[in-house]
Amino acid sequence: EDVKAISKEIHNLLPGTRTLGPSPLSAQTDSTVIARYLKTDYQRDIATRYQLPADDSGDGPDDLVLQVSQSLFHSGKFSRKAKGLLQVESTGKLYLHPEDAARRGIGEGDTVKVSNRLGEVVTPVGLRERIPQGVAMFPEHFDEEVRRLLSYSVDSETQVPYYKVARVRVEKVEGT
Question: What angle do CA 64, 65, 69 make, to 5 degrees?
């Protein structure tokens, strides 16, 4: 009883805390809706949503999918001002799977040209086993130059813009 009274007093004094704690009613999931979606709409969604736009399809077997994504060491553009985080990761690098890099004659720390029909960028390379083969990853916290390579598309159903994936060619810059 005392705990409830204290909680009530806190909730009355601090209005933002009224939503804290367990929900009085648990959410109920309608399994028939889920089953219907999995049998019909799911296949259509997978086929249309999770692919590169038609105008980004590469024209060569050496093309990679450039993915701009978050770095483990940064949480946004302002984290680039933290000295400790900059000691861990101070600039953007294009991360490749070692086998993709080896096929192109690229090693750790080499400089590469990343290009597509929208432009080109020169950047250093890092090799990571955890990057899937066929993918080139660049941290979004340092993506000012790389953004020029990304096309902007809008999901036809949700009308949500998507601009973090593009097909690119990666070539070693000679002399590095």
Answer: 135
